Amino acid sequence: DAIISIRALTKLFPGVTAVDEVSFDIRPNEFFALLGPSGCGKTTLLRMIAGLEMPTSGEITIDGQDMALTPANRRPVNMVFQSYAVFPHMTVEENVAYGLKVVGTPKAEIGPRVEEALRMVQLEQLARRKPDQLSGGQRQRVALARALVKRPKVLLLDEPLSALDAKLRDQMRLELTRLQHAVGITFIIVTHDQDEALSMADRIAVMEAGCVRQIATPTELYEQPASRFVADFIGRVNLLDGEVTGTRDGIVEVETRGLGRIAVAHEGPVSGKVCVAVRPEKLTVSSAEPTDAPIRAQGKVRDVAYYGNASHVFVEIAEGFELTANVQNRSRRIEGDFRPGDTVWISWASEDT
Ligand code: ADP
Ligand code: MG
């Protein structure tokens, strides 16, 4: 049950493997994100799905059909580009109608379909305006309507929010997820922004150097990253190198360099050298020694970074070994509880690693 199947897909450019034997499926009506650092091959992968780039090897199947011989304009997909290009001399409705005209859609059909597309992105009221009479967010919705009017089975979006300022970006994130639910088609979004992927996608493929490192839901990726790279790329994390010294039902004992021997929750077999990951918000910072926390250590506050809703407290446990704790600022405080130089306790529960 896949709308898109990708098998051993590879793209070589002179001197670089942009996409390296990638295989995965995308389900119908899924909001799917390709996430990874700049240059990892996201755009190239998306362009191959769109038919704008020919694979060096491998297969792409869309809606049950092999795409090897299908040109871009005959694929049931549509791409919204990073720049959100719209024609400045055309009105909103002319912009949206353009793509239908060039493929010879009957005139009688164009009007209703443009209207439908404008309604989807809530631009019906602005149909007669020119792009320079629109806000940045509205121009983006014109570009979306231009793609939706063709009724693709899959909409491809390459960094659609990267050109917007922070506030508008937050708003468009929500609009895009709502739009996807409303139109009920598959969205594939490319982004290097983990917050964007986590907040919008049903599933995320994390890419590095042309390879897909993990595909999972946002919570799985965040709570159970499969590798050090994924843990580090998705959100902030404390990484502790160590070596397994024993296991018993669901608990692994690890001798760590920074914290000595600790017990961490882990399903499945594990041995040898490992990396323990703890999210900053799972750590508790206290002035008094916690009596019941299984994992704890004393240290000295090095820095406090205030973010309004939360603060990051950087605590040096030993020479050259620091843990970051995220402390929620729930109650209204004028002065932070912790200051550089304070001696504090850091603790967490085994199941939170
Ligand atoms: P991303 O979108 O993740 O930033 P890209 O898919 O754009 O990454 O690029 C992946 C790699 O392929 C990069 O090393 C990039 O320089 C290279 N690349 C992309 N397009 C071309 C091209 N047309 N010719 C040569 N190299 C390219
Ligand atoms: Mg790109």
From TrEMBL:
UniProt keyword annotation of Membrane present = yes
GO terms under cellular component: ATP-binding cassette (ABC) transporter complex
Reaction catalysed?
ATP + H2O + polyamine-[polyamine-binding protein]Side 1 = ADP + phosphate + polyamineSide 2 + [polyamine-binding protein]Side 1
The broad enzyme category this protein falls into is translocase
Keyword set, alphabetical order: ATP-binding, Cell inner membrane, Cell membrane, Membrane, Nucleotide-binding, Translocase, Transport
- Residues covered by the ABC transporter domain: 4-234
Gene3D superfamilies from the entry? Answer: 2.40.50.100, P-loop containing nucleotide triphosphate hydrolases (3.40.50.300)
E.C. no = 7.6.2.11
Q: Which GO terms describe its molecular function?
A: ABC-type polyamine transporter activity; ATP binding; ATP hydrolysis activity
Q: Name one GO biological process term.
A: putrescine transport
Q: Matching Pfam families, A to Z? A: ABC_tran, TOBE_2
Domain of life of the native organism: Bacteria
What does the similarity note say? Belongs to the ABC transporter superfamily. Spermidine/putrescine importer (TC 3.A.1.11.1) family.
The record's subunit annotation is:
The complex is composed of two ATP-binding proteins (PotA), two transmembrane proteins (PotB and PotC) and a solute-binding protein (PotD).
NCBIfam families in the record = potA
> Mind telling me which PANTHER family this protein's record contains?
PUTRESCINE TRANSPORT ATP-BINDING PROTEIN POTG, SPERMIDINE/PUTRESCINE IMPORT ATP-BINDING PROTEIN POTA
Task: Briefly state the protein's biological role.
Answer: Part of the ABC transporter complex PotABCD involved in spermidine/putrescine import. Responsible for energy coupling to the transport system.
Q: What is this protein called?
A: Spermidine/putrescine import ATP-binding protein PotA
